[in-house]
User: Fold M20 family metallo-hydrolase from Lentihominibacter faecis.
Amino acid sequence: MTLQTNEKRLLDNLHTLRTFTDTPQDGVTRFSYGTQDARAREYIIKRAENCGCSVSIDALQNIRIGLPTNKPGRKTVLSGSHIDTVRNGGWLDGIYGVCGALEVLETLAENPDSLKDASFNYELVIFAEEEGSGFGSTMTGSKFITGIYAEADLDKLVSDTGMSLRQTLQSLSPYGPDGKTIVYNTGGLSQEALQNVRWDFDQVQTMLELHIEQGPVLDREGLSLGIVDSIFGMRVIEVTLTGVGNHAGATPMTERYDALCTAAECILAAEAHVKTDDDKRTVVTCGKMDIEPNCSNVIPETVRFSLEVRDKDETKIDRFMNEIIDLIVAIAEKRQVNCEIKEHSKSSPLHLTDRLIDAMSKHAAALDLPYKVMDSGAVHDACMIAKYAQTGMIFVPSINGRSHVPEENTNDADIAAGVQFLLDTVLHELHE
Ligand code: GLV
Ligand code: MN
Ligand code: MN
Ligand code: MN
Assistant:
């Protein structure tokens, strides 16, 4: 069974969605539950409804869209990703996998004959709040889908502006900018509504996520396709250092308890320590920091920063993180600065489904596509789903390995080839 995706339609969709940003001159900024999110939802939902598809939105605002030919009681092959971005992010992270799965949906809807002998249904899924840009925790929608998050987390997850996830969901109004298309479920957050967010994994046959690689491997090696076998785990801590604020001119260097200098020493110590890693795969990042009072002429009194360690080996993640925590405590003690460390979040490394890795590798080889089986340094909603259902991931190259920045890009030919490969894989799965 072969069908052809429509490259022009795919690229048109991606280019239109690229304009739904709060920062038009500086990458894509589209946070979950905001105005640009509503525009993107409306655009995708309208396209799906034009092909007769049915749309369901859960209380966390994850979306599932099914083909009109789907039959009740059959298991489902799902594909999709997220539409939210980091601040000033790229135009492909997440939305590429959504537009790819939408292109598969539109192609299948146009070719109902291709589904005559299908054993399974096909659905597009859009996971809400994957990046954690709003509430500081990645994969939020899929964590509710799998039950890792439950009702209490609606209050624990709070944005930088002090709004909890519960308050944010309660403040949504149902319609997109056209005032007609329902883009949010405003049915409330009752126990029953939250229970309905959980997927019945007995009904899930396969989950496939198409994504840009976000790293340099495929581009550097001149390959057009990656088939993901494992995904890095991560452990995130939040460190709060409290020194003594004081006058920046009048306080001698020997009488300072500077929280920012202490933070700088801690972060550099963490970097130096992780660089001792034998296979050079463990990574450590401090990407977020708040300084108080953040005035040029006041010695910083309080500094709060995030620190995350990632690897595909959980024992290495824990060993490095525990050693980094010891280093931070020792540095703070030496500088007589108070130190509080809170565990923030954690996800385990995982291996995706061997049957899918083998089937996709065979297909890529048959097509003579230059590909490799590789791991993913970034986390994805597929990580959550993979614990409960057969899950596969397809990567396309990121030019110069840039991602989470405005420069993020992929060649049109690679964009199109990845989506065609997704369609081929979906068709194969539908007829398993
Ligand atoms: C999500 O993009 C992550 O890997 O942090
Ligand atoms: Mn992503
Ligand atoms: Mn991302
Ligand atoms: Mn991500």
